[in-house]
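Tutorial handout. Part one gives the primary structure; part two gives the three-dimensional structure as tokens.
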Amino acid sequence: MNKAVSGFTLIESVTVIILLGILAASIFPRFTGTRDYEIYAYRSQLIAALRLTQQRAMQQTNSTLCHQIVIQDSRYGIPDRTDCSVTNFPADWQPDLTGADVDSRHNISFDINGNANPGIIRFNGMGVPLDDCSGGCTVNITGEYEVLTVLIERQGYIRAG
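Part two.
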């Protein structure tokens, strides 16, 4: 009688162990820190805030509210929704859906076309960018290890760069 042999050969076992080692060495650093991922989260939030502000500008054409986002170093948002001339954030400012105040430990900053802050992105009733982004612009999100961009085209299309 022949006995059926079951199990893995030595070569198969060694191959699986080597593959698991390579996989663990390349994936493990991704789970140990969130620094690399924070910049992507802030870019997604900024795109959503810009699109929301643009939609509000197109829907609230008779409103006296400001349809702009002020970008200043490590924060962006609307300092005063009723006074468009205010470009500095007050000390007690709290971000809403169209703003963010970056935690200092993330070391992330924003600028428009590399220019000094504060920068203003305002939209007209057709959703076309005005002020610092008239004719289109690039919002740079600078982190510790990389720079991501958000592109605002002159027609108003907003996308990740």
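Part three, for discussion. DSSP finds two helices and nine strands in the chain. The mean pLDDT is 85.
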